[in-house]
Each structure stands twice: as C-alpha cells, then as structure tokens.
C-alpha cells in the first residue's frame, strides 16, 4: 500500500492513526458485533460515541456551558442560510454585517440577502483579489447589527484573520470551516462558530455549530430541521444524524488530544506553514500572492514566476506522490492545504520537490 501526501483543500487528509483505528473497528465496534455504520443512532453504543465527540470538542476548544454544540448536515453552506433564518426576527427592519474576504464570505452574504433587507458589507478586499484581511480600523461595523459575520480562514485565497475582530456588543459569527482546531480560540468572544468537518475535523457529511444559547429560539415557526433550538433540544437527533461521520470526527478529536491538544496543533501549524512560506519567499522562481500579515497557516497558495511551467510542476509533483496541489481557478497556480493532519514530512517532501523542480527548470 502506498499513501500519497494529499494537499486537497477538502475533503482533506486525515490522520493515519484515525484511519487505522476505523479500519480495526470496522466490522466489530468494541464487541458490539457490528460496524458503527450499522448501529441505531439511539443505541447505547452510539449515544456514547456522540456524547464523547461533544465532550472532547468542548474540552479541546474550552467551550463554555452556555454554548450548545450541534452536529448537523447540509454542510457549512447550509449555515449561510440557517444563521440569518434563526437570528433575524424582523427581516424588514433589522440589519446584519458581513466582512467579505473571499468566495465563501460572498456566498454567505448573498444567502443572507435573501432573508434580510439590510445586509451591509462592513469591509471587502475584493479589489485586491482577496489577498489580504481588512484591519480592524477598516471595518465599518453597525453597532445595531443583529450579528457580524466573518470567514476566519479563506480556504480559496489563503488568508486568515491575524486578529480577533472587535464587534462590541454585536455577536461575532465565524465560518471557521478551514481553520477550526488549528489554533486556540476564545469561544466566549463569539456568538457562533460553524465549520464543515471535511477540512480539519473529519470526513464530509457533518457540520459543527457552536452557538451561544441565548441566540437560539428567537424565531418562531421555523422549519423544525432548520431550528437551532429544536436541534439542540434533541441533542442533534431530531432525525438520524450522520452517524459514521460523527464517529470519525470523535476519533480525530481523540487524536488531537493525544497529540497535545489545540496548542500543540498551533505550534506545529506555525512551524509547518513557516517552512513552506520561507521556501516560496526564498526563491524568485516561486511567488505567493497573499500579504504577509494575512497569510493562512492552513491553505498556502503559490504561483510560478513563469506560469507556463504550472502544468509541468503539477504533473511532476503528482509523480512524486504530492497530489491535489492545483490552485483554485480564481487564484491559479498551486495551493497546498496543510491542515492539522498533514505531517511535517509532507511539507518537507513538497519543499524538496520545489527545490528540485527549480534546479531543473529555473
Ligand atoms: C469548504 C468551505 C465551505 C463549504 O463547506 P460545505 O460543507 O461544502 O458546505 C464554507 N466555508 C469555508 C470557509 C470553506 O472552506
């Protein structure tokens, strides 16, 4: 068996130890005689799995008691709609703020426009093709907004907030799909944090929502399946949850804990990303489009000074076992997604390939 270094933006690399554990437990989960996939979500074994996943997430992120943790379906993209649906009680008179730092932020904003008349753009860096994060001073926040929405890491453009935006009394909402658990966050500073699992938490199919309890239950007569309050009341089990995805998520959380927790993840991520950016910046052959202060530790875009060599780079990298490095079409070139589960050896192999490619083609 040969494993590659997979730099996919998502679904993305998982820790090998997690995959091995899932393999070992595949046919007979802890003596139950069945796979987790075949188990009733109401069974004792499964109730322990979902409770353990929630407890571990609470422990690793330091989630306070006055926050609910939900495991939902529909991806981070459904949260673009569920958030305004649940928090806006008077769509004609209320206002919300969005900071636009990339395509996902734009999508979140346009979904909100369908549900609220006054959606304001508190800042945007579109004019520089989203190569940087606006500073706090650049945010024109509305103190009367129902909430202010940010995308904490921009998966496509490779930028990440280097600071925690201060929104005063307005609840801060973060789409943290691509950097959750990569660094410590102070959950109490947020109204809600949400993340599709398939970047840093596990497989696709489950979305984590961490929401301050007083923000739930504000809107009456929502469709039950889209109502945070109703979902929280039933422990994310209004209907069958994505059982297997939550099980794998729990294994990933156990792995993070074993490795030393979120602080250790951050230490490694600073080190891994630092190495890769240094290799890019250290050569005129490679270019990085993003402003240094805004650079993401999770998604590293880079281009070749001679873009005609891009296809050859990608083909050579693939032959060397370094796959899914093609950049998003809106940025071009390459993008290396280096989430928690990407081992340092993967970074080293990529840097070695870059040096060799430059030596041959530079
Ligand atoms: C991947 C991604 C999404 C979309 O996630 P889905 O689960 O596919 O809906 C949204 N926001 C960000 C920041 C992402 O990286």
Sequence-ordered SSE layout with sheet pairings:
Layout (H helix, E strand, L loop, with lengths): L4 E2 L9 H9 L19 H18 L5 E6 L2 H13 L7 E6 L2 H11 L4 E7 L23 E4 L1 E2 L4 E2 L11 E4 L16 E5 L10 E6 L15 H6 L9 H17 L1 H21 L4 E2 L11 E6 L5 H10 L2 E2 L10 E4 L6 H18 L1
Parallel strand pairs: 1-13, 3-4, 3-5, 5-8, 8-9
Antiparallel strand pairs: 2-10, 6-7, 9-10, 11-12, 12-14
The structure holds pyridoxal-5'-phosphate.
Please describe what this structure looks like.
By secondary structure, the protein is α/β, with parallel strands linked by helices. The protein folds into two domains: 17-258, Aspartate Aminotransferase, domain 2 (3-Layer(aba) Sandwich), CATH 3.40.640; 261-361, Alpha-Beta Complex (Aspartate Aminotransferase, domain 1), CATH 3.90.1150. The chain is built from nine helices and 14 strands. The chain has helices spanning 16-24, 44-61, 75-87, 103-113, 228-233, 243-259, 261-281, 310-319, 344-361, and strands at 5-6, 67-72, 95-100, 118-124, 148-151, 153-154, 159-160, 172-175, 192-196, 207-212, 286-287, 299-304, 322-323, 334-337. The strands form four sheets. A seven-stranded mixed beta sheet has the order 2-10-9-8-5-3-4. A hairpin with a 4-residue loop joins strand 6 (153-154) and strand 7 (159-160).
């Amino acid at each position: 068996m040969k494993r590659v270094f997979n730099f996919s933006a998502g679904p993305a690399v998982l820790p090998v130890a997690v995959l091995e554990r899932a393999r070992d437990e595949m046919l007979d989960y802890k003596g139950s005689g069945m796979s987790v996939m075949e188990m009733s979500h109401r069974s004792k074994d499964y109730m322990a799995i979902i409770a353990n996943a929630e407890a571990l997430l609470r422990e690793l992120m330091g989630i306070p008691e006055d926050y609910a943790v939900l495991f939902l379906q529909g991806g981070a993209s459904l949260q673009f709609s569920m958030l305004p649906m649940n928090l806006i009680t008077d769509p004609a008179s209320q206002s919300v703020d969005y900071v636009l730092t990339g395509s996902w932020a734009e999508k979140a904003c346009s979904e909100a426009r369908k549900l609220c008349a006054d959606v304001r753009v508190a800042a945007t860096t579109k004019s520089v093709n989203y190569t940087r994060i606006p500073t706090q001073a650049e945010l024109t926040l509305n103190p009367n907004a129902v909430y202010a929405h940010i995308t904490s890491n921009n998966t496509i453009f490779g930028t990440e907030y280097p600071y925690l935006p201060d929104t005063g009394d307005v609840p801060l909402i973060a789409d943290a799909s691509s950097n959750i658990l990569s660094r410590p966050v102070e959950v109490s500073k947020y109204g809600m944090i949400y993340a599709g699992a398939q970047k840093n938490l596990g497989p696709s199919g489950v979305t984590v929502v961490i929401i301050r309890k007083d923000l739930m239950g504000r809107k009456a007569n929502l469709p039950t399946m889209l109502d945070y309050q109703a979902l929280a009341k039933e422990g994310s089990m209004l209907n069958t949850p994505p059982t297997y995805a939550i099980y794998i998520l729990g294994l990933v959380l156990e792995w993070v804990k074993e490795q030393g927790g979120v602080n250790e993840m951050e230490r490694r991520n600073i080190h891994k990303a630092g190495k890769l950016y240094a290799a890019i910046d250290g050569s005129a052959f490679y270019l990085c489009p993003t402003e240094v202060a805004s650079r993401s530790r999770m998604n590293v875009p880079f281009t070749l000074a001679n873009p005609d060599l891009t296809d050859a780079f990608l083909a050579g990298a693939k032959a060397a076992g370094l796959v899914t490095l093609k950049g998003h079409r809106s940025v071009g070139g390459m993008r290396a997604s280096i989430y928690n589960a990407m081992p340092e050896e993967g970074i080293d192999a990529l840097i070695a390939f870059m040096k060799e490619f430059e030596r041959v083609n530079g």
